[in-house]
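can u do me a favor
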């Protein structure tokens, strides 16, 4: 099966029922995605699939033929990531860092479809991601800041 991983075509020949999270970590050495709940509830394992934030712990690798998967490792090379990284740092949205890869993926997914989100839009956009350290206000502020300061990127 062929799919795009971090902007490059790759061929996967293993078990199609294996979780995407496991394939990313075990087969491709991409460790930014974390296993939190293993049930699709916390968002720590989120990646972008065709531009949409998806929990990789509940996604079978076999469902990705012909699709584009972007992990935080690949997303880091974009101008959008730089804007989000800077805004999250300025707003104090990053503490332990466990949830941040998933929060960044959720923020990108939101901003790519709605570059001028309201606070309610942001809260809904990150609602599938849990954070135990910062609370959500600083994360919401970070996404608002990225949207404002990154005009034209999304």
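np, heres the sequence
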């Amino acid at each position: 099966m062929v799919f795009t991983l971090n902007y490059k075509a790759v061929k996967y020949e293993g078990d199609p029922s294996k979780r995407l999270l496991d394939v990313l970590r075990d087969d491709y050495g991409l460790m930014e995605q974390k296993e939190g709940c293993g049930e699709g509830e916390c968002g720590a394992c989120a990646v972008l699939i065709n531009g949409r934030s998806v929990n990789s712990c509940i996604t079978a690798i076999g469902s990705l033929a012909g699709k584009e998967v972007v992990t935080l490792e690949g997303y880091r090379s974009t101008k959008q990531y730089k804007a989000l990284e800077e805004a999250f740092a300025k707003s104090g949205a990053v503490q332990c860092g466990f949830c941040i890869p998933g929060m960044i993926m959720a923020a990108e997914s939101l901003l790519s479809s709605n570059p001028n989100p309201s606070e309610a839009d942001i809260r809904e956009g990150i609602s599938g991601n849990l954070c135990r350290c910062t609370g959500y206000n600083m994360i919401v502020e970070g996404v608002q800041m990225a949207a404002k300061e990154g005009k034209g990127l999304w």
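The first strand starts at residue 2 and ends at 5. hope that helps!!
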